[in-house]
Amino acid sequence: MPVPDPEPAESTTTTPLAPPPRLLDQLREHIRVKHYALRTERTYVEWVRRYILFHGKRHPRDMGALEIEAFLSHLALERGVASATQNQAKAALLFLYKEVLRAVDLPWLTEVVAAKTSRRLPVVLTQREARELLMQLHGAHWLAASLLYGSGLRLLECLRLRVKDVEFERRELVVRQGKGSKDRVTVLPENLLLPLRNQLAQARALHERDLAAGRGAVWLPDALAVKFPRAARAWGWQWVFPSRVLSVDPRSGVERRHHLAEQGLQRAVSLAARRAGIDKPCSPHVLRHSFATHMLQAGYDIRTVQELLGHADVKTTMIYTHVLNRGGRGVLSPLDAL
Questions:
Q1: Annotated catalytic, 320?
Q2: Same-domain pairing of 94 and 238
Q3: CATH code: domain of residue 165
Q4: pTM for this structure?
Q5: 154 classed as catalytic
Q6: Of the residues 51, 97, 149, 320, which is catalytic?
Q7: What are the Cα distances from residue 238, in Å, to 57, 217, 262?
Q8: For the chain, how many helices (H) and strands (E)?
Q9: Of residues 90, 288, 289, 294, which has the active-site annotation?
Q10: What does the pLDDT look like over 112-161, one tens digit per residue?
């Protein structure tokens, strides 16, 4: 009688497990889950990388408060970084330990002392200097710089303006997802209405060429691209200041048209200040400082200026009151009385 074939034994071979993600990749994933900005992601990853290299490539899990304090002390004493930079590095390391390594049972997390932030007065241009600086700019860079000074926008708030957020009839600009992911409304200068319409006409012509070439989609925040598949190509969602070249999204890998690069406007403002003979250090943010100061000088209420700037605390706005007095605190020097 034939012997039946034995049942096949269970295979002892198992599919090899995929290696766990690298620490920096885990850090990127946690940052994206919390919807942090791309530049915050890059900054945090870079600080964690420097921290690991500083301690001879030891794993952060094997280090703690002493290693963090040693690294922060190195930044302050040997690298001479500003207190804000030192606190930025500290924030990146605490995010790593709390969110990625889940070090909730380590009491030293709350004991790492932050560097004392220095109180610096902002650089402010006079109205004459602001006028002469803007006269040295042309094209889209002139218009963007004029909005920084005329509307009090931050650099990226200006470059990230969408067509739908320009309110010509109400003379308003709607700032979406500004600092702290807050929306606000600010003034649209009367003198920029025609230049802004011309800029939008150029942007529309560029957008129509993109559509004809099978492109024309822009990046949309959150999950809007999934909820509204056609919105990415709609005219209202296009950038007011589109870039002349296409670029690849570093997160999704999709090639699309982004807005103007902030480095280009920063360089243009710096060169314009040099040509205008302005000796003060000038960056696009100086124009925002000048907007706030000149608004207060014109007699506008500080709460109104706070709202236009998007400051969460009026104390931040009050720093601009240092120029409201004539001379040094508005007093007469005894030397002038001789």
A1: yes
A2: no
A3: 1.10.443.10
A4: 0.80
A5: yes
A6: 320
A7: 44, 8, 17
A8: 13, 5
A9: 288
A10: 666 666 677 889 999 999 999 999 999 999 999 999 999 999 999 999 99
